[in-house]
Amino acid sequence: MATSRTGTAAYQHWRRRVLAAGRADGVTRCPGCGVELDYEHGRRPDSAEPDHILPHKWGGRDTVENGRVLCRTCNIRRGAGRRAVPREPRSATTDFAW
User: Fold this and answer.
1) pTM assigned to the model
2) Torsion of CA 51, 84, 3, 69, to 10 degrees
3) Would you say residue 92 has pLDDT above 50?
4) Residue 85: its pLDDT value, please?
């Protein structure tokens, strides 16, 4: 049976580093919704959770630079997210960019 990626030692190490960096940087409120973050308790709506800025499915890595701290509610809502890619304006003479 395959193990989930979030159960690996590498992910757990990344998780601890991102949360420690957020705490050290003074991140006390969720940048998504503004709720005060709880670093002491897990699995609560206001619990501090690490989030990949660029998700794994789009090539994101488990690096501190690719992590940020969100509340659990915002992290769940974001999920794997949608890729926000700036697009060139379409004109009548161009084809659709897939």
Assistant:
1) 0.77
2) 0
3) no
4) 45
